[in-house]
Amino acid sequence: xxxxxxxxxxxxxxxxxxxxxxxxxxxxxxxxxxxxxxxxxxxxxxxxxxxxxxxxxxxxxxxxxxxxxxxxxxxxxxxxxxxxxxxxxxxxxxxxxxxxxxxxxxxxxxxxxxxxxxxxxxxxxxxxxxxxxxxxxxxxxxxxxxxxxxxxxxxxxxxxxxxxxxxxxxxxxxxxxxxxxxxxxxxxxxxxx
Length: 193
Known about the structure:
Elements: H1 2-13, H2 28-38, H3 44-56, H4 62-67, H5 70-77, H6 83-98, H7 103-109, H8 112-115, H9 123-133, H10 143-152, H11 160-170, H12 175-192
Helix pairs in contact: 1-12, 2-3, 2-9, 5-6, 10-12
């Protein structure tokens, strides 16, 4: 059933090509990770402004984040809201990434259970990082996905892990389908508002 719904959404909205990266973060997946943290409790336009501030200030890597003064980081990401908490989370996340030696080692070796222990990283942020930055097959559940499931009257529990399990069990375990389907659900949700 989910595969047919995916195909219908793809036909209706076209390929979304997520996650949008437009800046010179190094590697580009670092922008995805920071964006996943910044998007907590705000809209994407605010995240774009915060990412632009980071880019314009040359804060482009996990090393840059580890060296920047926390107050300066707070100022740069202020448009995203909850900037004090998010600055602390981004600092902790950068330290965590650096513990792997390189970003590529982080991408290849990070475990979901370890990432969930980083302060400020919950299920949705964790799975966004794993799917979009690390190319791991974890389906992202967000408020749009929950609304989407309710609109289809799908019989499943609505807690995060149950919903994630439902999608992963009923879709081919293909990373590109996970990415595209999640992006299509977000597009569906934006048009339903």
